[in-house]
Every structure is written in C-alpha cells, then in structure tokens.
Amino acid sequence: MTVDFGRTSTDYTRHRAGFPDSFFDRLVRDNVLRPGLRTVDVGTGTGVVARGLARNGCSVIGLDVSASMLEGARQLATEAHLSIDFREAPAESTGLPSASFDVVTAGQCWHWFDRPAAAREAARLLVPGGRLIVAHLDWLPMPGNVVEATDALMNASNPNPPDHVRFGCGVGLYPQWLSDVTDAGFTPLETFSYDVLIPYTHEAWRGRCRASAFVGATLPPAEVERFDQTLARILSERFPQPVLAIPHRVFALLATRP
C-alpha cells in the first residue's frame, strides 16, 4: 500500500490545523526563533511550520517531495502575504549549501523520512550552534471522546496500513527521535511537550480525517467516501455539538549542532 499525501492535498490545505501560536511563542521566548534567522523547513507539506517561521521574521525555504502539496503551500503563503521559497526536494538530500542555515525544522514528518539520513543532512546544512527542531502535533484518543471513535473507524476502514502510518499513534511523544539526532552528532538536546485543545467543525474534522495517512493518502476514492459518510453519521449521532474541542499534544525536540 502506497502512502501519497498528494492525493489528499486539497483536504490537507483546507482542513488540517497547524501548530498553535503557543508553539512558536515558546520558541521565540526561548530565543530559538528571532527575526533574520535563515531557516529550512523539510517535509513542509502545505507549509504549516514554514508560515509560522516567516510570521516570526525568519527567511524560509520550504522543501517537500510532493508538487501538489507545495502548490497548496504556495497558495496559503500568498493568502497570508508571506514570502517563502518553496522547492521540491527530499529531506535526506536537499541540494542546499552546507553550513548556511541557522535552523532546520521538521513538523509532523520525521517518521516519513530515512531518519538517520535526514539527521545527517540537517547537520550538514546548519552552522555551528544551529538548531534542528523536530516537532509533532498529534490528536489524543481518550475514553469516549471523538478521537477514540474516529481512530476506531480508521482502524476498521484500513486494518493493514504500512507500519509507519501507525508510528506513534495515540501517545504523541517521540523519545526515539533523540537517538536519531545523537547519532548524527547533535548535542545538547532538549525536549518539551504540552496539551492543547483545537476547535474543529464537523466539516473540518471530516476533512482533517480524510487528509490523514490512514484515509485519503492510502485508500481508494470509493473507500474514502465510505469512511467519510460513516464518520459524518457518527458525529451527528454521538457528537452533535457544532464545534468539537479536539485534544492534541505538541511534542518538540531541539537539537544543537556543535
């Protein structure tokens, strides 16, 4: 089964919430982000992290292997009046010059990479003292909540996805990433995590779920439609409130190039 987020780029662009402002606020408060930094956002997708970097005054190059995702990223950046240089390139071999960047970011994508190769490439790109930021924003299934019901439907609709689709599901913490960056020579390391509620309408939640690896990126169109209609019925019957407060966990690993 092939995972192709390009198949769901429309839903991804419209409905997939990005990292909350509090994530970028913390990086600014800790002096990790500041105006003028040269940054590269690998696995940028629709540019969620790239736009956050640009809003905080950084110069940004956003890289992804999906042309359709980059098209969505350019659209959203234009609508936000942000200048970002989006390019088609993999995280493991960016083609960018060595020791030329202050920050490399990877948001919601590290598990899709050849992780050791991506870590080595990040180390190559960064100046001494530069930072690699690996971050995730995962929804949290809890007993009786809408995420638990959605996860159950996803598992029933796609019982045999590739292993990396399930990676980290349900916990939102990724201590294994520390080994990846340590092996690439990064030190010291720092992590933080916190929980946040993100509001979704029924329409937006359905779109967000269609944009997931379990659904739109792997299933045939007819099965995506069947999933979507079943989810709509579950929301109407069991979670009728018009705006759903979806619990998420932010996790970030900050690694410094010596």
Structure characterization notes:
The protein is α/β, with parallel strands linked by helices. The protein has a domain at 5-139 and 163-196 and 247-256: Vaccinia Virus protein VP39 (Rossmann fold, 3-Layer(aba) Sandwich), CATH 3.40.50.150. Helices cover 38% and strands 24% of the residues. It has helices spanning 9-15, 21-29, 48-55, 67-79, 115-125, 146-157, 163-166, 177-183, 202-210, 221-238; strands at residues 38-42, 59-64, 85-88, 101-107, 126-139, 189-201, 243-256. Helix 5 (115-125) packs across helix 8, helix 6 runs antiparallel to helix 10 (221-238) and helix 9 runs antiparallel to helix 10. The mean pLDDT is 92.
SSE layout and pairings?
Layout: H1 9-15, H2 21-29, E1 38-42, H3 48-55, E2 59-64, H4 67-79, E3 85-88, E4 101-107, H5 115-125, E5 126-139, H6 146-157, H7 163-166, H8 177-183, E6 189-201, H9 202-210, H10 221-238, E7 243-256
Parallel strand pairs: 1-2, 1-4, 2-3, 4-5
Antiparallel strand pairs: 5-7, 6-7
Helix pairs in contact: 1-4, 1-9, 5-8, 6-10, 9-10
Family: Belongs to the methyltransferase superfamily.
Keywords: Methyltransferase, Transferase
Organism: Myxococcus stipitatus (strain DSM 14675 / JCM 12634 / Mx s8)
